[in-house]
Amino acid sequence: MEGGAIEADASAFKECFSLTWKNPFVLRLALSAGIGGLLFGYDTGVISGALLYIRDEFKAVDRKTYLQETIVSMAVAGAIVGAALGGWVNDKFGRRFALMIADFLFFCGAVIMAAAPSPVVLILGRVLVGLGVGMASMTAPLYISEASPTKIRGALVSTNGFLITGGQLLSYLINLAFTKVHGTWRWMLGVACLPALLQFILMFFLPESPRWLYRKGREEEAKKILRKLYPEDEVENEIEDLRSSIEDEVKQEGSSQKINIMKLLKTTAVRRGLTAGVGLQVFQQFVGINTVMYYSPTIIQLSGIASNQTALLLSLVTAGLNAFGSIVSIYFVDRTGRRKLLLCSLVGLSLALAFLCGVFQESTTHTPVISRQATLQFSSSFTCPDYRSSGYANWDCAKCLKASPDCGFCASPTDKLYPGACLISNSTVKDTCHDQSRLWYTRGCPSKYGWLALIGLALYIIFYSPGMGTIPWIVNSEIYPLRYRGVCGGIAATANWISNLIVAQSFLSLTQSIGTSWTFLIFGGVGVVGFFFVLVFVPETKGLPIEEVEKMLEKRTLHFKFWAKEEENLPNKTVV
Q1: Burial 291-318, CB ≥16 within 10 A → b, else e
Q2: Helix or strand or coil: residue 370?
Q3: What is the CA 460 to chain-centroid distance, rounded?
Q4: Is there a contact between 239 and 223 (Cβ–Cβ < 8 Å)?
Q5: Which spans in 439-569 are helix H?
Q6: pTM score
Q7: Would you give the DSSP letter of residue 368?
Q8: What is the pLDDT of residues 34-91, one digit of tens each?
Q9: Of 134, 80, 82, 86, residue with least CA distance to 498
């Protein structure tokens, strides 16, 4: 094991599965820590459905796009701070303690959101939840990685990714379950406190990361845990590698406790690791995934689906595919490798986004026309003021909705694609429209291309989830030297959440200013740039012991031949 890579092939997945009876301790540790990923995924998904009903209760939120974006993005802003603090907390107090702090923050935030009497209090709860999610997002994969046998490290860290997507799927199921319950969105947001409480309790029964313990001089504790994690024929080599790694750090820095930030940035392995790790986290967000997860019901409505419940039900498809893609990643990550999964993922999602661009372009340019006769069938006070002031010009549905957020489209009772009415958007007019067996649209127009948008979203998720969905977290959990792992992981997670905030805060505004189709085209362009970034800057870490990754980074230069055999990337080889 020392000085080289362990062969990681199809048997890694089988070995991971066999932990159920061979070494349940490892699997229990991975799944318990992975609840942090479940919290991450649940919060990402639940707000997309809850927002539909928050808009119904708080009219100011319904009228003002920036309030909707703020409710979504304040959790992301909290996560930025949580991830940044998480790096320091991880290195100072340990991975286990950091997860417990994250659970406490998430629990408090969920309770506050459920009881929020106003948008301001709701936003406060979102910030607290974000702090917890940010800290858990960088701690959970780090903890799992440091406590996983090398051969199945990728698969076990992928369980965190699976629980993220599983949390998103669970959130959509919870959203659907509470659509008919009084206090709809309050239940959706409040129930999130339960998994946080569960993980908090479970962490009392789990050990600290053995690698963190070793760094802190608690060697006997670390060895005891490593002997529970590794087979007998591997554990002594693992302990020796860890001891050697710590000794090298002490020789270089003079201390295994104090971290010098300037030295960190000047260290070749750390700098190259941060370039790859931070870059992957940024591209993960800028290809637009969380617009799909945060706003998927809204996107579905933009494609011409009017009903909140129908939009939520169809969102289950994207969430289910996302969870399935994570399972695919668990199988292939230690067999195919990180880089190849990333590259295939970026090619596929870029093509899917180009397809979505075309679908939404067709949808917005072929919408039902506004009929003056159909509009005047209603009370004159119901007519959209902008349409009236235009002199009942030749408008279509898209122009009616874009003219003002206070206007909506009431479709023809015969066929939703026939000419309809442009009316004021309020609950009275909406109910009047429904009473005449008509569909009411405020966020998207009826279109014969709506089903193609669903196919495009499904393709996007199918390609995104196994690669860009899980691999950035895996790479960041294993690419940094042990001494800097908490700090570097915090930097990368912070970059992820800052990128997430930018995308979440701007998505609805972008769709209003340049259109949904061009917004998706921008995301697709980012995917193409990401493809070349991975080719040049991201190394393959499949099968490498964590202590060997640093040596590989020190010797590695730019590498374009991603199809080359894995042996070319090992520390004892010359890399092109």
Answers
A1: bbbbbbbbbbbbbbbbebeebbbbbebb
A2: strand
A3: 14
A4: yes
A5: 450-464, 471-478, 485-513, 516-537, 546-555
A6: 0.71
A7: P
A8: 888 888 888 877 887 788 788 878 877 777 777 877 887 788 888 889 988 888 888 8
A9: 80
